[in-house]
């Protein structure tokens, strides 16, 4: 046997397990994603498998009950998570940096919403999903007893951004309604059916968290808190601790995701009557929205990410799989926010100062999928009623969809209410909206993934655009003196460049910049 020859293989060597593809390691690293996907498939199988038995209302409630509890657990954490993340995040940035990041974030959100509205119009014109014969199959009618104006929606945004009671904003939001004028007496003889009834505009409050008002208050509060130095350190640490506790709660809740998702999907499938007939009638509408959503997700978003970050965008996309499944199952960007935070600050390693600033804002005003849906749905109903739309009307739909998507709530089926506003802007009939309610349970889940992904990609892009400011802030915070602003800490301090409050640093400015650049090269 020559010196270069290997000895005979022993039994131990031959029996050693070989896993060249790393499949086992992949399953271990992504076990939560795998079982969540299994839950989705199980929900679909159970839903369609039990449909032939025509289960009663009590059985449907029992099947949907685990999903209801899962949704309630997620929603339970939304309010403290938004408040804690925004105050801790904005307090870690100086006022000038907060202003720059806010401008970049809002500009990104507006431009992407405009693009999605434009994409929806183009696809609806090319595919032409609306057919006049569909109106004959629609029996449900939604009565339109009040006016719907885009002006009211825009004014309601301002009223909610500046609430007059911050406590009330935690559970109520302002909205405009039209009511019949109240009279002290009725005069039947004086009534005249030919005289149109003039409705009175009133400001009412409805149940639901006014997240726009809370976001504004927390941003201002946190920015000013960061200027207090050591006086504000205790308060910053308090909100940082709240955020850390909520994220630990999220980690525990995530293991219930497969059961909750399976229950939600099965309940929705069982609760829809005549699924086959509805799908066949609205197949082209569903296809148009789906093509637009995935065209934007798989191509446009990835190009934006690659243009700004010069990295493989699909690795980033894959890292958001768990958050996408949660957003799709719950049909709510807000409900998926805790999971989104976990993915962005964990495996994807986006700077917490950016995620805690961008994600809560995007959760409320960045509705890319909603803008696309509103454009397609508006043209679908116009085509169904044989309406010819000129350039001026298409431009009106484009602007109205963009503005309406900003005022959309991050809750299931909120876009259906805004669709009435868009249709009223071009004098299109609104009673045909009832036809879309039959498939909104499905389309809502498709477009919600666009909304959630838009927030995440915005955070990645804004972080890259704000790299110089973040590095300067890191360098300033690492000066050999006690930190004045008490920056929030994290479980991975070195990786994200954040220093524990109150500690003295012996690292030079050049060293922290080198460390920041080293982390940039090692990230996905």
From TrEMBL:
Swiss-Prot/TrEMBL keywords: Glycoprotein, Membrane, Symport, Transmembrane, Transmembrane helix, Transport
TM segment ranges: 32-53, 73-93, 105-127, 211-228, 249-270, 282-309, 316-337, 357-382
Origin superkingdom: Eukaryota
Membrane topology of the entry: Multi-pass membrane protein
InterPro entries hit by this protein: DAACS (IPR050746), Na-dicarboxylate_symporter (IPR001991), Na-dicarboxylate_symporter_CS (IPR018107), Na:dicarbo_symporter_sf (IPR036458)
One GO cellular component term noted in the UniProt record for this chain: plasma membrane
SUPFAM superfamilies: Proton glutamate symport protein
Short name of any one Pfam family annotated for the protein: SDF
Main subcellular location: membrane
Molecular function per GO: glutamate:sodium symporter activity; L-glutamate transmembrane transporter activity; neutral L-amino acid transmembrane transporter activity
Entry's localization field: Membrane
Family to which the UniProt record says this protein belongs: Belongs to the dicarboxylate/amino acid:cation symporter (DAACS) (TC 2.A.23) family.
Protein name: Amino acid transporter
Taxonomy of the source species: Eukaryota, Metazoa, Ecdysozoa, Arthropoda, Hexapoda
